């Protein structure tokens, strides 16, 4: 009975979850950027980050693609896993 009541209460909140219609200039601004002749892929990573370490095989597969279409750069950053640090 308790689960049924919780389920019904959750269903009552569904109509409130409708997304609002955002309008350009009011809720957000479009940034105009100039396109580069050759797309650039810049990988920001940290030697201390386990997520960056797991992403490395994906980054290596991107590097193996033909290079005339894009350039790949790696930028190490000093990221530490400390709160407020």
TrEMBL record:
Keyword Signal part of the UniProt annotation: yes
SUPFAM superfamilies, per database record: Thioredoxin-like
Signal peptide: 1-19
Keyword annotations of the record: Signal
Keyword Signal: yes
Gene3D superfamilies (alphabetical): Glutaredoxin
Protein name: Periplasmic thiol:disulfide interchange protein DsbA
Organism, as annotated: Agarivorans albus MKT 106
């Amino acid at each position: 009975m308790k689960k049924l009541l919780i389920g019904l209460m959750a269903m009552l909140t569904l109509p409130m979850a409708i997304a609002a219609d955002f309008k350009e200039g009011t809720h957000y601004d479009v940034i105009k950027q100039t396109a580069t002749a050759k797309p650039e892929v810049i990988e920001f990573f940290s030697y201390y980050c386990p997520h960056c370490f797991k992403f490395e095989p994906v980054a290596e597969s991107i590097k193996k693609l033909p290079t005339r279409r894009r350039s790949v750069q790696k930028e190490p950053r000093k990221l530490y896993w400390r709160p407020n640090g």
